Amino acid sequence: MPIVTPLTKLLNIRVPVVQGGMQWVGVPKLVAAVSNAGGLGVITALTQPNPAALRNAIKETRSLTSKPFGVNITLLPSINPPDYAGYARAAVEEGVKIFETAGNSPGELIRYFKSNGCIVIHKCTTIRHAKSAVKLGVDVLSIDGFECAGHPGEEDIGGLVLLARAAQELKVPYLASGGIADARGFAASLALGAAGVNMGTRFMCTVESPIHENIKQTIVKSSEQDTVHIFRTLHNTARVFKNKVSLEVIKIERRPGGAKFEDIRDLVSGQRGKLVYENGDPDYGIWSAGIAVGLINDIPTCEELLRTLEKGVEDVIGNLNAVVVKSKL
Ligand SMILES: Cc1cc2nc3c(=O)[nH]c(=O)nc-3n(C[C@H](O)[C@H](O)[C@H](O)COP(=O)(O)O)c2cc1C
């Protein structure tokens, strides 16, 4: 039985599962595998060195799938911001119709995509930001709870309450994001009113994910206690894998007087994080991971993963039905 929600209808996909943008991970091979499996794969624009390279990544993805896929643009706090407008234009000109936006002050980007007839999924971590994004005209919200990999915001609200609040407040479809890696989480998200789920960490650990096999095995061996928050004291919290480098960053942040970004810049460099995925050493740099690592025990293909999730959701919902005893009138 297919799971039909406003998301599957809007995006014309079979399973209401989105693979969220992932720096160094959201590349054509994985994106196409997710879309071919019936979900929505999303290319991470900033993983490409420039807008021209993004055009090539879009063309490559299109050569691997005829199904819908999207492009993520993440607005980062940065002294020298990337050419966001250039990436956006390249993707629109290449015919991409679905965008995932994330980060601060997305107004200009969202207006640009909407004026070009695109569908926008905006990722946020508070109901306040979700409502602002609705005013800007986004079609879908992706609500990232405290559990998520990457940036959970500074308010520490777990998915259970955040999604129930979304159900109370939002009139547009929303996705549950953060901590979802199995059918129970997926079914619970639907129960909380979500039109689907967004997953990051789970997709890192699939056959088609481009990261080193040793990092996938590290995720399989990890528990839900194997992530930490860095950048807390800089008010730009990020959930990353607990390793020598992230523990060192926290130590520096906690020393008397705190830390400035310059004090940790080398430790947290994106290039070091990229090399983790290339050389397979989990202690080489900082890499994003959510507490869903504790739920991940295998490395399936995206097709196997989505089929298992679909079937699992049906079972979980069926079993819940049996819990409800209808009283006789
Ligand atoms: C390795 C990795 C890199 C990520 N990079 C980005 C990114 O560049 N932009 C973004 O919006 N979200 C990024 N995220 C967050 C995901 O898109 C998604 O919101 C998050 O992983 C959901 O939580 P989960 O990992 O518990 O499923 C990243 C997540 C991971 C695991």
UniProtKB/TrEMBL annotation:
Pfam families, sorted: NMO (PF03060)
Gene Ontology MF terms in the entry: nitronate monooxygenase activity
Keyword line: Flavoprotein, FMN, Oxidoreductase
SUPFAM superfamilies: Inosine monophosphate dehydrogenase (IMPDH)
PANTHER family tied to this protein: 2-NITROPROPANE DIOXYGENASE, 2-NITROPROPANE DIOXYGENASE-LIKE PROTEIN
Protein name according to UniProt: Inosine monophosphate dehydrogenase
Source organism per UniProt: Mycena venus
